[in-house]
Design brief:
single chain, alpha/beta, TIM Barrel, Sulfite Reductase Hemoprotein, domain 1, 2 domains, eight-stranded parallel sheet, five-stranded mixed sheet
Length: 369
């Protein structure tokens, strides 16, 4: 693999999922998935809306059985954002989700069954064209636990060729029906396998790619593993939508996803807090201060880099990369813009002084509780 700086994003076709366009050079979309029982309509609608409010562009939910499928029309009627139905084994559940008005179907090769079942789902997705602004998209979701047996025997579970061949095999069935609203993922729990699978796949098709590391783990370890795996792939120009898989409240998946994009310089809107790791020179209680500011400004949409520094000696210089920041010590607080001290105040006003300035610069209100 040859890389040249600056790296350009891979060119992929555009696929519409509700009011979000994946691929085609459009912004990388952040996805998450509910962990409620889809048969519990109230809980599922509430959590889905919570995910949208947290910044998810697309939300997926499991369709476990016929009882869950019967709840899909009501769930769809109560939510406005793009919804994806996650289907395993029973192709008729995919048909029900399409009829309920879901915007995308996710199927796994190796467990959906015979090719004719995939064809029937594909035909139904195509037939929605004319009744909706666009047809229903299909994501071919290959992961470590759903590889076809013949490919496991041929290549093995951690060989990226297993993932790529499984995905292209499934795509060929859809292409036979002249269906091209396809998104593909080749997620492994092994970051190296995922990295190479996505690169191999990117060279063999122009479909938009859904990036993720499956079964990444708990909040801390899963965040680290996902950041390494997803970030490495994104930094080589590959990826059109991402999902961070965490054993945690799915709201964290959305937050981590946006932070990965910001860290890869692929997302410019929204506030970014940078802060020093603290050392013996730090003279303020910086950790809770930085956490408080980040929590209170998470909703801000305007692009702004904010520095929270604890050293009155190096703070102004270290904050020079930010649009605005604070540093403090020995009872004094400093407000800094582009490395220049523009105001001083008592140390007790550190947080309020910064929040006031953020409001003035963005025009967005901040709750102070």
């Amino acid at each position: 693999m040859k890389l040249e700086y600056p790296i350009e994003r891979r060119k992929s076709r555009a696929v519409k999922v509700g009011d979000v366009i994946i691929g085609g050079g459009f912004p990388i979309a952040v996805q998450s998935m509910t962990n409620t029982d889809t048969r519990d309509v109230e809980a599922t609608v509430a959590q889905t809306q919570q995910l949208f409010d947290a910044g998810a562009d697309i939300v997926r939910m499991s369709v476990l059985n016929d009882a869950a499928a019967k709840c899909l029309p009501e769930i769809r009627s109560r939510l406005t954002g793009p919804l994806v139905a996650d289907i395993h084994f029973q192709y008729k559940l995919a048909l029900a989700a399409i009829k309920a008005g879901f915007d995308k179907i996710r199927i796994n090769p190796g467990n959906i069954g015979e090719a004719w079942k995939v064809r029937e789902v594909t035909q139904e997705a195509k037939n929605t064209e004319g009744t909706k602004e666009t047809g229903v998209a299909i994501r071919i979701g290959v992961n470590s636990g759903s590889l076809p047996k013949d490919l496991l025997e041929k290549f093995g579970r951690d060989d990226p060729r297993s993932f790529v061949e499984a995905a292209l095999r499934e795509a060929a069935i859809l292409e036979e029906l002249d269906f091209h609203d396809i998104i593909i993922s080749v997620k492994s729990t092994n970051t190296m396998t995922a990295f190479w699978a996505y690169h191999m796949l990117a060279e063999k098709c122009d479909y938009p790619l859904h990036i993720g590391i499956t079964e990444a783990g708990t909040l801390e370890t899963g965040t680290i593993k996902s950041s390494v795996g997803i970030g490495a792939i994104l930094l080589t120009g590959i990826g059109d939508t991402i999902r961070v898989s965490l054993t945690a409240d799915p709201v964290h998946e959305v937050r981590v996803g946006h932070q990965i994009l910001k860290s890869c310089a692929l997302k410019k809107d929204g506030l970014e807090v940078i802060s020093c790791p603290t050392c013996g020179r730090c003279q303020i209680d910086l950790i809770p201060l930085a956490e408080s500011i980040e929590a209170k400004t998470r909703h801000i949409k305007a692009p702004l880099k904010v520095a929270v520094m604890g050293c009155p000696v190096n703070g102004p210089g270290e904050a020079a990369a930010a649009d605005v920041g604070i540093a403090g010590g020995k009872g004094k607080a400093m407000l800094i813009k582009k490395g220049e001290i523009v105001r001083t105040a008592p140390e007790s006003e550190l947080e309020s002084m910064l929040l006031d300035e953020i409001e003035a610069m963005t025009g967005e209100k901040i709750k102070r509780e």
